[in-house]
Amino acid sequence: MARGIPQSVFWSCFLSLLSIAACRPASSARYAIDFTNGAPGWFLPAEARLTAQAANGYLSLSLKPPHMVGWALSPFAFQDGQVEVEGTLLEGPSSTDYGLIVHAARGRFYRFAISADGYYGVFFYERGNWRALMDWTIHPAIRTGRTTNHLRVRSAGVEMIFWVNGVEVARVPRGSNAESGRVGVSIGTMAGGDARVAFDRFIAVRDR
C-alpha cells in the first residue's frame, strides 16, 4: 500500500504552537498522566474537524477529513529526554495513523507515528511544510487493527531513537533545530477520514 505525507494540518493548531511556547511548562523533571482526572494543562483542540477529549480514563483525538494531521500538546517540555504513550485505534480505517509529538515550538515539531495497518514513520514539520526523516515503512513490531501499541521516543545528544512495543524501529540524526519544546500526541488520516484514537499512560522525563 502506498502512503504519503499528509499535505495539510489545522491552522488553529499551528497558531497554538506559536503561542503555547510562551506558556510556562511543567517544572518537574518527570510528568505522568493516565487521564483519569481529565487532562489539566493540555492544549485540547475543539472544532468541527478535530476534537480532543479526556474522559473515561483516556484522551481521545477525533479527526474527520482525510489527508490531515491534528494533535494535542501536554504542558511538559524538554530539550533532552524521552516520552512514551499507549495508543489504540477506536474508529476509522486501518490507514489511520497516530503517535507522539516532540520538540513542539516556534511553529515546528517532530512527529513519530504508526498506522493501524502496520507502518511507522518519522517526520519534521515546520510552518506548513513536512519532511520525511523516515518515510512510511512496514514493521512486524506494530500490532495491527484496533489494538493497543506502546510508543516511545528518546531525544538526546545527536540523535532520536524510536520504539514500538519495546522494539527499536528507527534512529535519526537530531538537527540543531531540536530546541526545548512541548510533547504531545497526534492523529493522522490518509485516504479515509472519520478516525478516532485513544491515548493512555502518557509519561515524559526531562534530562534538561
Descriptive account of the structure:
- By secondary structure, the chain is mostly beta strands.
- Helix content is 5%, strand content 56%.
- The protein has one helix and 15 strands.
- Strands 2, 3, 4, 6, 11, 12, 13 and 15 form an eight-stranded antiparallel β-sheet that branches. Strands 1-5-14-7-8-9-10 form a seven-stranded mixed β-sheet, with helices on one face.
- The protein is globular.
- The chain starts with 7 loop residues before the first strand and ends with a strand.
- About 7% of the residues have low confidence.
Strand content: over 45%
Q: Give me the number of helical elements.
A: 1
Provide mean pLDDT, rounded: 88
Question: What's the total number of strands?
Answer: 15
The sequence of SSEs as H and E is: EHEEEEEEEEEEEEEE
Please report the distance between the alpha carbons of the first and last residues: 40 Å
Assembly state here? single chain
Global geometry: globular
Summarize the biggest pleated sheet.
8 strands, antiparallel
- Can you tell me the residue ranges where pLDDT is under 50 for at least 5 consecutive residues? 10-24
Rg:
15 Å
What portion of residues is helical? under 10%
Structural class, from helix and strand content?
mainly beta
